[in-house]
TrEMBL record:
<keyword id="KW-0472">Membrane</keyword>
<feature type="transmembrane region" description="Helical">
    <location>
        <begin position="331"/>
        <end position="352"/>
    </location>
</feature>
<feature type="transmembrane region" description="Helical">
    <location>
        <begin position="201"/>
        <end position="221"/>
    </location>
</feature>
<dbReference type="InterPro" id="IPR003370">
    <property type="entry name" value="Chromate_transpt"/>
</dbReference>
<dbReference type="Pfam" id="PF02417">
    <property type="entry name" value="Chromate_transp"/>
</dbReference>
<feature type="transmembrane region" description="Helical">
    <location>
        <begin position="163"/>
        <end position="180"/>
    </location>
</feature>
<keyword id="KW-1133">Transmembrane helix</keyword>
<comment type="similarity">
    <text>Belongs to the chromate ion transporter (CHR) (TC 2.A.51) family.</text>
</comment>
<dbReference type="InterPro" id="IPR014047">
    <property type="entry name" value="Chr_Tranpt_l_chain"/>
</dbReference>
<keyword id="KW-0812">Transmembrane</keyword>
<feature type="transmembrane region" description="Helical">
    <location>
        <begin position="372"/>
        <end position="392"/>
    </location>
</feature>
<protein>
    <submittedName>
        <fullName>ChrA protein</fullName>
    </submittedName>
</protein>
<feature type="transmembrane region" description="Helical">
    <location>
        <begin position="298"/>
        <end position="319"/>
    </location>
</feature>
<feature type="transmembrane region" description="Helical">
    <location>
        <begin position="81"/>
        <end position="103"/>
    </location>
</feature>
<feature type="transmembrane region" description="Helical">
    <location>
        <begin position="115"/>
        <end position="133"/>
    </location>
</feature>
<feature type="transmembrane region" description="Helical">
    <location>
        <begin position="140"/>
        <end position="157"/>
    </location>
</feature>
<keyword id="KW-1003">Cell membrane</keyword>
């Protein structure tokens, strides 16, 4: 097999795996990280637990859709920039198509209350629990890292603000720097090797800020409706920490008070976005389609995800260089411990609190967890079982 055939085979594998995840990953960004960990770390072994935690920590630092940025980053690790693009397309395509179809043809169906959705939420509970336990064994192996994780958990539970995660990570970095010792094994196992140079990274970061500042000026000068929509979605994707649930009120303020989208249509799309797999940022596809047809849906999707691309591609080269520094590795060990606490917090609110309502829910979640953890049943099969269970019960 020639090098070009090997690259094509690798890219095809990236697309097919990310597409399967895009069809089966329900439950929001934290659940997506659980599905990614199960697929990319445990099953495919494309990267180890430490390297995956490093990628998750980087995505928590950056604004934008955390789970999508992790998926893009893993695609870049596996297949370069083209691999990142293909990974993004595979993971995002199913929900984009479903929401465009919903906006055009399906009307006001209340998908969010369907029984199968509850079954899928219970699967998400099991997947996230499995991922958090696996990561905690590696990343909180001593009393200090356990204490850092606990602090991040308490902070993010008691202060449910989008900046709480960022503050927890910054405090954990300081605690790790002063209290922990660098581990040579972490340097060897968790290092991320990427094909993007620092010059390319700097260009991506410069382009991110240029668009953030330039689009509003172009919008004011040209008064073009499509450009105005692209500016709104680009800013929403650029300035949000904490994932898709946080971007929804920002988009509502952009489009509902101005009369571009009615409150009823916005809420219908919100319900549909909760019901489909993949990233919640694809809600942009629904809004764009309601405004300007399917072409508007594709433009809105590109605009809201473009910041995530530019930021992850711009940050990765510098992030990987910093990992070679012993002082940074100490801080990074604290950051990784904080990520565990943040994931536990997100597991409780909103995943557990919005899903577990009865003894039947607990029983089903326990069954799904056992299938995943003990009998190694593939996650996509458990998703099907969960949907059927929700319909029956």
């Amino acid at each position: 097999m020639t090098n070009s055939q090997k690259k094509l085979s690798a890219l095809l594998e990236i697309f097919l795996i990310s597409l399967r995840l895009g069809c089966t990953s329900f439950g929001g960004p934290i659940a997506h990280l659980g599905y990614f960990q199960q697929t990319y770390v445990r099953n495919k072994k494309w990267l180890d637990e430490q390297a995956y935690a490093n990628m998750v920590a980087l995505s928590q630092f950056l604004p934008g859709p955390a789970s999508s940025q992790v998926g893009i980053g893993i695609g870049i690790l596996r297949g370069g920039i083209l691999g990142g693009i293909i990974s993004f397309i595979g993971f995002t395509l199913p929900s984009v198509l479903l929401l465009i179809l919903f906006a055009q043809f399906l009307g006001q169906m209340n998908l969010a209350d369907a029984g199968w959705i509850q079954g899928l939420k219970l699967v998400a509970v099991a997947v996230v629990a499995h991922a958090v336990l696996g990561m905690s064994q590696k990343l909180t192996a001593n009393p200090i890292t356990k204490g850092i994780a606990l602090g991040a958990l308490v902070l993010t539970l008691l202060w449910p603000h989008q900046l709480a995660q960022l503050l927890a990570i910054l405090l954990a970095a300081g605690a790790g720097y002063f209290l922990l010792h660098p581990n040579q094994n972490d340097k060897e196992s968790g290092h991320l090797t990427i094909s993007i140079g620092k010059k390319s990274g700097a260009i991506c970061l410069s382009l991110f800020f240029l668009l953030l500042a330039g689009l509003p000026m172009l919008r004011a000068i040209t008064d073009t409706p499509l450009l105005a929509m692209a500016d709104s979605f680009y800013r929403a994707g650029s300035l949000v920490f904490g994932g898709g649930h946080v971007v929804l009120p920002l988009l509502e303020r952009e489009f509902v008070p101005t009369g571009l989208i009615s409150q009823q249509d916005f809420l219908a799309g919100y319900g549909a976005a909760q019901a489909v797999p993949g990233p919640l940022f694809t809600f942009a596809a629904y809004l764009g389609t309601m405004l300007y047809g399917w072409q508007g849906g594709l433009l809105a999707t590109a605009a809201i995800f473009l910041p995530a691309f530019l930021l992850i591609m711009g940050a990765l080269p510098f992030w990987t260089s910093l990992q070679k520094n012993s002082s940074f590795r100490k801080a990074f060990a604290g950051i990784n411990a904080a990520v565990v606490g943040i994931l536990i917090s997100a597991f409780f609110i909103p995943i557990w609190s919005s899903t577990i309502h009865s003894a039947i829910d607990i029983a089903l979640a326990a069954v799904f967890y056992s299938l995943l953890a003990f009998w190694k049943v593939p996650a996509w099969i458990i998703v099907i079982i969960g949907a059927v269970s929700g319909l029956i019960l």
